[in-house]
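INFO  loader      accepted 1 record
INFO  loader      residues=472
INFO  predictor   begin
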Amino acid sequence: MRFVLINPFVDYKKVNKLFSIKAEIPPLGLLYVASALEEKGHEVSVIDFCAEEFSDTRLLTAIKQADAVGITVRTLEINSVCHICTTIKQVYPRLPLIIGGPHCTIDPEKALRETGADICVEGEGEEVITVIAERLSQKKELDDIPGVLFVKEKKIKRGPPVKEIENLDTLSFPSFHLVSHYQYGEVVGGYNPTRGKVASLMTSRGCPHHCRYCINGAPNKTYRTRSAENVIREILEIKKSYQFLHVIDENFFTDLDTANKILDFLVEDDHGLELWISGIRVDVADEQLFRKMRDAGVTTINLGIESGNQDVLDFYNKQITLDQCRNAVRLARKMGFFTIGYFMLGAPVETEQHLRNTIEFAKSLPLDNASFSPFAYLKGTAIWQDAISKGKIRKDEVTVLCDSQRGLGNFTTEEIWSWVIKAFQEFHLRPRYIIDQILQAFLRWDFRVPKEGFKLLVREDNVLKSRQFYPV
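INFO  predictor   done
INFO  writer      dumping tokens
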């Protein structure tokens, strides 16, 4: 069969153009699905509308010869997915549309109803997509495929419960060749530390921690890791064609033994790759580990700090301390990493003083970049379940911002967005921060941060103050 897999565009009307709306890295989930299909002999192409401009003409031309279309669905892009599905069905009403991805896993029935697709995959898709392809080609039923929902006679039917892939080493490596013509790493109105040709890497799935706000640590999620040997084989393939590698694990160092084996290989091998590790908990930071990361080629890390208040971190069940946050950022600066800190504002226990403390705490850290976002209730998380039990959130809702008008926090949605903007401005527009980043630019001989910062200042009145934000 001929499959076209689509990474949908971001709905520009819903997104603040201050932030990146271009793809920083290849769509790894789609490329895993593509690889599974190719291994079974199917013909696959990938259209990434986060890396190229979308148009109905481009869409319809791309799928003209397709036997089936697969679309990944994230909550942020639900409106664009609905448009894509509607456009396809208007011209090719009998073409099977298969959706999957995070939004489908959170609420697969709602995703099917919203998009008008024919088939929905709940959970991981690499194993079931080949079964779906076989059934479609043979015009057989789908009702015994785990984690698959489908529309039949205008009713939604559901197969057996979803199954996680137990052994990640059985997965084929992602089909990066299908997106080799795209330029990743481009950013609109912001800074992205990637350089050269970019690939992405996943060494584990899930998370063993149980932060109350996070879906990845939910009770129905299992933490699984690939073997170091399997990951190393993929890196050896990646280094043949790429210069930058973005590791996207939720927590890369959860399995320290595996992580250290990978880093030891990178230290010894002349791989020539620059690495960005997204998922690092502050409680794993020590000088020996960070020094090994630096020697392995790591140049950028993300740290989930979340709050400048210990009582809020405890409320989140984050199981970290403010001193651990300080230590991690200090060590990262010592090693020369470009360090990005993530913060949330507006948890239900937070007062105005809590918000101020978080902003001041962020400003006290030698971070190279700080990301502030409003706290959100996500379906399936512990805090979402608590709100459901109290009747504050409906069961059909997927993502809900903290909002005092609904008893979900101490601030209205508008007030929280004002604090997010305030935090962003106070952190990035400080003379001390600007001078520090100019100094770091000379030390790293990388002047992209000052350059992008100047662009941001120029655009501030038009974008930053417009508050044209998407809720999450």
